[in-house]
Predict the structure.
Amino acid sequence: MSTLAATFTDALDGLGVESTRTTAAGFPDALAATVEGPAVGTPLPFDGVSLDGADVAVPPTPDQLRTAKTGVTPVFGGIAEYGSVVVESRPEGDELVALYPERHVAVLRESDLVAGVDDATDYLRERFEAGRDSAVLATGVSATADMGATVEGVHGPREVRVIVLSDR
């Protein structure tokens, strides 16, 4: 395990976020262990890894999104120091699938980890210059997830799990 991956895992542990490190070959089992149905997801753009064959609705209908317990999305970066993940806004609906269900399963390539916020800012600047226009930096569970009726709209996940792909 790389130093960045070890730092990231330690930060996630400190946040109470479960993580699994796996290869593409082990991904279906790692995913099955993290998903509680009904589940929705967005396509995973990582070679050799997909949600095909999983009990995950891709793409979800609005009704499936509203009733989902788990949302599975790719994340396009991770900040090792804080255990943060970068959820980009894609037409596939990553932000919605990450924020609506009670559990978010973030799928991340180990090679997309950066050490700190300065590195993430440089990374995001490059992504925005290439045409991306929105990203959410998520660290642990949502601070409003337990506030119920006192907060209107999307509360964010009550639980986060991260699957780190070590061979991508």
